[in-house]
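Hello,

I think I submitted the magnesium ion job twice by accident. Can you confirm which output corresponds to this input? Input:
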Amino acid sequence: MQQRMLPKHIAIIMDGNGRWAKKRLQPRSFGHKKGVKNIFTICKYAFNLGIEAVTLYALSCENFSRPKEELDGLFDLFRQYFGKDKDKFLEMQVKIQFLGERDILPEDIRKCLTELEHLTAAYTCGILSICINYGAKQELIRAVNIAVERRERQTLQSFHNLLYTKNLPELDFVIRTGGDMRLSNFLLYQLAYAELYFTKKLWPDFSPKELDKALEDFIKRERRFGKTE
Ligand code: IPE
Ligand code: IPE
Ligand code: MG
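Support: Only one job matched these inputs. Its output is below.
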């Protein structure tokens, strides 16, 4: 695959962990564990290909309405991979940032997130953004409120700078695993001209081979951005 044709910035809606576990008669938490492991496989592969930015939907604002037991299990996974076992992230040598409203998270987890951001701030092999308690509508309202507080009229450029994604290249490609064809409040502004790809593969089964398939599809598409050719 030719690097110049690859998307610079891909985003993934990592859906299907629960169903993956159910198929195996296991609790949903089993699927989430397998899902986290797959983050490393896919991110390493994507950054090695030369993709500059990967943005992952890990937990939506709406996911906070799930049962406490499931959320506690997810928080424990955050504690493990963003804290104790953070070397797995550090190994990738990419800058890591968390997008979303983190006030809702337990304080020890917020500390892990901030520390991981600091530790990786100078890494240059790519940017990995992980969306936690993220919602696109919430992101837009937040941006509008900042603008109102500053009493600033917005331009496309200045509004871009009010978004969580301000330091990222234009979003080129959004992949959703799990078979549903919807966006579930993910990056609704940023995907104005992104290409969309939906696969039935559940996230824990989404392998580098599946990513290759998606990228081959992306490369074939003609992106016109409103022009004629
Ligand atoms: C996506 O998998 C991960 C999170 C939202 C945390 P799901 O947990 O939504 O899995 P399904 O869609 O129920 O299979
Ligand atoms: C989208 O998956 C959110 C994440 C993958 C983090 P959901 O499972 O929450 O989406 P819906 O409820 O099917 O739209
Ligand atoms: Mg789901």
